[in-house]
Amino acid sequence: MAVGEDAMEGSLDDITSRFERSVLTQLYRSYPSTRKLAKRLGVSHTAIANKLREYGLSQKKGEE
């Protein structure tokens, strides 16, 4: 998989955060609950909930 130069900008933390956010954004569409997404990624649902919140991806009840 080729990676553009823009994707390589910043520190390792910056790069991994962008990649992690991208993965979560894409998979959250197919696995729209923290438990389903956590099972898919092999981590705890608490870890997923925290990551979704960290990246502003979590949907609270009543939001669409």
Automatic annotation (TrEMBL):
Drop me one GO molecular function for this one: DNA binding
Q: List each copy of the TyrR-like helix-turn-helix domain by range.
A: 9-58
InterPro entries the UniProt entry points to: Homeodomain-like_sf (IPR009057), HTH_TyrR (IPR030828)
**What Pfam families does the entry give?**
HTH_50 (PF18024)
Q: Which GO terms describe its cellular component?
A: cytoplasm
- The protein in question is named Transcriptional repressor protein TyrR
Superkingdom of the source species = Bacteria
Location relative to the cell? Cytoplasm
Main location group: cytoplasm
Alphabetized UniProt keyword annotations: Activator, Cytoplasm
